[in-house]
Specification:
This protein is α/β, with parallel strands linked by helices. The protein contains 14 helices and twelve strands. About 35% of the residues lie in helices and about 15% in strands.
């Protein structure tokens, strides 16, 4: 197996500046809570604070359940996908932090996905928990096709736009490279790393955390962990803010609401696959037979890739190889930071939820989708 593309941005360091001992304490606490916390799914509000007009349960080909939240508009449809340990509220937290509302107001028919085991899809429509052995491949090869097929049937549109944050961008790449991108007219990904070939201490800690978590019988109770870490933030400076987001770019009130609403469980199957990925340095399939970065050369749809300059989860040099791997003739790579005219250096979660995302991030997403629409 050949290694994936490893690109460093000229004139930039591999990581943002020093973060101090507290920035490395968060993964250590995760290791601790992986052992002590019971496994269960999160509880999320049953309705959107931003007025989602419709919602749909959808059964996938492998008999799991996903959920779609619909912000209706008359224009082309777009599927919006959350990241790891997250749910659709990542895109729909409040009226100022709702890409769903923004895209609908721009005329795009917007569908926010809860992948299996996340948000309202943590249980099926009959309120029973689903099986919990799924992994990243299941999200990409079953959940995304089921959502796309449903939206195409519902709207009559032959093609969709695609927006993904973090893991949402990764599963979009896996879907498009393995099943083809003919159902898509454009893609936008934010904070989606695909290069793990040069591990730093933080990534090594994450690898050990995923190893421990992969042995859990079902899931890690990350919503409880998030609330506990948030409650300790005043006594433990820079925890967990410096790892998850730039605290200068998300208000304290929004951060508390985010920790209480957006965070969903980590599932043992996805942790096993992420452990393999971090252990080998490759973005590989669960069985280790497919190098997804090499397969991404088959992707030809217009692609906008965004990274946050202050993102410690997915720094720009781990995200740029996504941009380099595809064969799209129309593609753009943007680093959201002050050096490029943004008001702040963006972290991982403030790409979708930052105080200024509505003014700086959302217009780039909507503009790309409208410009490269069907």
């Amino acid at each position: 197996m050949n290694p994936p593309i490893n690109h460093r941005i000229p004139g930039s360091a591999r990581r943002p500046g020093p973060v101090g001992i507290c920035s490395f304490l968060c993964p250590l606490l995760l290791l601790f809570f992986l052992i002590l916390l019971p496994t269960c799914a999160s509880t999320v509000p049953s309705s959107s604070p931003c007025g989602v007009q419709e919602g749909y349960w959808i059964e996938t080909e492998d008999a799991a359940t996903i959920y779609l939240h619909h912000h209706a508009a008359s224009g082309p449809p777009v599927l919006v996908v959350h990241g790891i340990s997250s749910n659709h509220y990542c895109w729909d937290l409040d009226p100022r932090r709702s890409l769903g509302v923004f895209l609908a107001q721009a005329g795009l028919d917007t569908w926010l996905l809860d992948m299996r085991g996340h948000g309202l899809a943590s249980k099926g429509p009959d309120a029973r928990h689903m099986k919990r052995s799924w992994n990243i491949d299941d999200y990409a090869l079953h959940d995304i096709p089921a959502a796309i097929d449903f939206i195409r049937q519902k709207t009559g549109a032959p093609r969709l736009g695609y927006v993904g944050h973090s893991l949402g961008g990764i599963v979009g790449a896996i879907y498009a490279s393995q099943l083809g991108d003919s159902a898509l007219y454009s893609m936008v990904v934010l904070g989606s790393p695909v290069d793990f070939s040069d591990p730093d201490p933080l990534l090594q800690l994450a690898r050990h955390a995923f190893l421990l978590g992969s042995g859990m019988p079902a899931s890690v109770r990350t919503p409880t962990l998030a609330r506990m870490l948030d409650a300790m933030a005043d006594r433990l400076p820079a925890l967990p803010e410096e790892l998850l987001y730039n605290p200068q770019n998300i208000s304290r009130e929004a951060a508390m609401r985010m920790m209480d609403t957006v965070v969903s469980p980590l599932w043992a199957g996805e942790m096993r696959q992420f452990y393999k990925i971090l252990n080998t340095g490759y973005l590989i399939s669960a069985d280790g037979t497919v190098d997804y970065v090499q397969a991404m050369s088959s992707i030809t749809v217009p692609l906008l890739v965004m990274a946050g300059r202050a993102d410690r989860i997915a720094p720009p040099d781990r995200v740029r190889p996504y941009y380099l791997a595809v064969s799209s003739l129309e593609r753009r790579f943007v680093v959201a930071g002050r050096e490029n005219g943004f008001a702040r250096d963006y972290g991982h979660l403030d790409l979708p939820l930052g105080d200024r995302a509505q003014d700086e991030i959302y217009p780039l997403i909507a503009g790309w989708l409208v410009q490269h629409g069907p």
